[in-house]
Amino acid sequence: MELTLNNGVTMPALGLGVFQSAPEQTTAAVEAALAAGYRHIDTAAAYGNEREVGEGIRRSRLDRAEVFIETKVWVSDYGYDEALHAWDKATGKLGVDYLDLLILHQPAPDRFEKTIAAYKALEALLADGRVRAIGVSNFMPHHLEQLLGSTDVVPAVNQVELHPYFTQPAVQGADAEHGILTQAWSPIGGITFYPGWGGQERRNVMEDPAIAAIARTHGKSPAQVMLRWHLQQGRSAIPKSTNPARIAENFDVFGFELSAAELAAIDALDTGNRSGPDPDEAREERFAMVISEA
Q1: b or e along 114-130 (b: 16 or more beta carbons within 10 Å of the residue's beta carbon)?
Q2: Which pairing describes strands 157-161 and 68-73: parallel, antiparallel, or unpaired?
Q3: What per-residue confidence (pLDDT) applies to 203?
Q4: Taking CA 70 as the corner, what is the angle to CA 142 and CA 257, rounded to the nearest 5 degrees?
Q5: What is the rounded distance in angstroms from the CA atom of residue 55 to the CA atom of residue 115?
Q6: Phi-psi region for residue 234, left (φ > 0), alpha (ψ -120 to 50) or beta?
Q7: What Å distances lie between residue 240 and 14, 182, 223, CA to CA?
Q8: Of 57, 71, 147, 181, which alpha carbon lies 20 to 30 A from 33's?
Q9: C-alpha angle with apex 277: 273 to 283, nearest 5 degrees?
Q10: CB neighbours (10 Å) of residue 172?
Q11: Per-residue model confidence (pLDDT) at position 170
């Protein structure tokens, strides 16, 4: 299943995410995903595993053009020249000469002038063909308005935390208004306990009884039901796993369909509480993390 971005580029709706995948596990996970049928891999400079993603793609023996590669510029590389160099670092580690989708990892509102400058660098990379599409991640509606007021190219994608317990209707609405595709990270609520964020009171969406009941009806797992929910509502989803059986299971979501009532039941689970960091909160120590050259 493919989605068409606002510049006409097509992107596989379902991708493999590699957030928190240890470098030594990432190559095998990417290789397993591509063998299972995935053709979209999402990584980021901040994950520290772009090189291993590239190795997994090479081991698959697929042509470069068959794999949609998405990565992200980290905040410490914001600024115009810095973001151009971030492209150099990312492509060098991945072992490719272009990227399918390059996005800014955080809005970083405490230094938004550098965010704008970095996005203008992405626009330049798009114009000269070094990336096929550009976008953002974790941008709330007010961040999008600020960005759109200072730049020329509407982001193709906004990747945000989105799962049944946190559906972000305002973000989805703003994205739709501007023709931006909403892409879900933590699409099955797997990142219930985000590192350094939140407490132990969080509930695991994988164990929700309403989702379990829908899963039993279809003979599917709760994860498969949640991924189907995303796809039927027009979103991209990037589930993360390093387990080959789970990677394959997460891709097996095209042979069944949820009813309107089932979709509504999942929508009704929204708590309005995020599991990851608040994009409006400055995280100076984390933002200062240096992305290595090699």
Answers
A1: bbbbbbbbbebbbeeeb
A2: unpaired
A3: 79
A4: 85
A5: 30
A6: left
A7: 11, 17, 11
A8: 181
A9: 150
A10: 20
A11: 98
What is the rounded CA–CA span in Å between residue 220 and residue 249?
A: 9
Contact at 8 Å (CB) between 59 and 35? Answer: no
Distance of CA 228 to the CA centre of its chain: 16
Q: What does the pLDDT read at residue 292?
A: 97
Structure tokens at 6: 């606002």
What's the confidence (pLDDT) of residue 201?
A: 58
The helix (run of H) or strand (run of E) holding residue 158 is: strand 157-161
30 CB contacts (<8 Å, ≥6 apart)? 16, 18, 41, 52, 53, 55, 56, 57, 60
| 121 DSSP assignment | H
Which residues does the chain have with pLDDT short of 70?
Answer: 191-202
Report d(CA 97, CA 88) in Å as an integer. Answer: 9
pTM confidence score = 0.96
Residue 257: predicted pLDDT: 98
DSSP-based three-state secondary structure for 79: coil
Contact 253, 37 (CB under 8 A): no
71 and 102 in contact (C-beta within 8 Å)?
A: yes
Q: Residue 62: what pLDDT?
A: 98
Distance CA 78, CA 87 (A): 11
Nearest Cα to 229, choosing from 208, 203, 248, 245?
A: 208
Q: Tokens for 141, please give them.
A: 């509606």
Q: Which is the catalytic residue, given 47, 78, 119, 165?
A: 47
Known catalytic membership, residue 38: no
Q: Which helix (H) or strand (E) holds 159?
A: strand 157-161
pLDDT at 202: 65
Residues 118, 78 contacting (CB under 8 angstroms): yes
Six-digit token pair at 232? 């039927």
